[in-house]
Amino acid sequence: MELTDLQALEERYLMQTYRRAPVEFVRGEGALLWDSEGREYLDFLAGISVCSVGHCHPEVVEAVREQVGRLMHVSNLFYTEPMVRLAERLSESSLGGRVFLSNSGTEANECAIKIARKHAHRRGVEAPEIVSFERDFHGRTYGALAATPNLARNEAIGPMLPGFRSVPLNDTGALHDAVGENTAAVLIEPIQGEAGVYPVGEEALLAARQACDRAGALLILDEIQTGVGRTGSLWAYEQTPVRPDVLTTAKALGGGLPVGACVTTPEAGEVLEAGDHGSTFAGGAVASAAALAVLDLVDEAALLRQVRELGATLRDGLLALEGVAEVRGRGLMIGVGLGDGIDAAALGADLLRRGLIVNAPEPRTLRLLPPLTVDSTQIEGAVALIGESLLSCSP
Amino acid sequence: MSSEKLPRDGRRLNSASDAAERLAAIVEAAEKAASAVIDDAEEQARRHIEEAREQADRVVAERLRELADELDPQGIGVSAPGERRLRPVQPAPEPEDQQAPRRSASAGARLLATQMAISGASRDEIEERLRNGFDIVDTGEILEAILGPEEE
Predict the structure, then answer these.
(1) CA distance B25 to A219
(2) Average pLDDT over chain B, rounded to whole?
């Protein structure tokens, strides 16, 4: 089937909620993808930080293959070992409490929001509020959407869930004022991903922690994009001066399969009880087996060190390019702020033609999320391609 | 049928060259066996070293996590296991005094350093973050408390 045929079918049968690039990918290995015409691409988006151990990592493939052949699904009415082992692994590597497994990041955030609201009700709060930063992205289901200020303004799909408010990123004063006795939680990304890779400052994180403790609220860190090694530690909060009460993760966790998790401290893990929450597919044996294989690969000091070192190499290389105004982020989560007059979307399209996959989350920012297993030659190659493209796309 | 063993091709050993050939085959087989034994021993040794290293890493990580749990009772987000983290409704607090943020920042710096150590960051990486993130010029005290004295 030709690409044009696929495009016609897509337009006929898929809801038109995405603008797709005109490429059909048919194969992936490590940081490389191949399209239906046999052309090779260097993937510096990794399925929006999902394929963090590279495409089709043999150990993940083998874990999935083995589990698929043995047992796929039994529902959450029974036990399976991969599900329980995954929960143990997530808890022991972070907050030490309980885990609710889900199928996606937005579902993990829904769970966190439920925990926060119920916890607030226990404190006697009738109308609990959740505070986020402007331009945060927490997902597209209604609870997570309400905590995503930019999307929550879309009145066409209103009314939104009540009880959410936002303050400007890194505005400690506004955060202090917004958090009060009705606050159930502060729900924030440690580094805003979809907004264009904007890290939350350490003062703001400390202010959020202090405000939550003052109000009796929970600090929820959305590590859906930053977690599972992306920033050079297993969890991004490990490189900050705070620890959350709840963290949510997804994307890279399944290595390409859909899996998410809401992870708590021991105390926050006591909030939800039987009947409060559930999901038919969540914690499925295959997705859990994949996630365990991913964690085996990523939770390794050598790999995490490599992420930090290659991230520094990538930042230095980008900063040396004409047309790059700034480089934001941590580890291999990079936002490239472009100079005046350079259109990120046009640059991204040009890079795709040159064989490098990136994306443009805002008009003047390129976002780079290469697999954590990328090598230095591929980093140098990507920098060179961006440099060439900048020369041709600059005004 | 003769009880004498035949070579694989079925020929009898009836000459000195046959005997030499057989001897060479025996030596080669012995060398292969010895090589396999050596490889196996090396593999076992590698595994032992790896296990010992992992065990040491686990002990260090566990201790660092305990340290993180012991840090800062002032609400930086660290609690000892079993301690109630979810607090009952409290009256709105009085405005914080001037000292509070500084104390918290200091505790935050210690927590940051501890968490970075848990995550496998090097001494230099932690030192850089303490200098840049918290404007701490003399990082020695925090680093030594968490990582021990610097090796010469």
Answers:
(1) 72
(2) 66
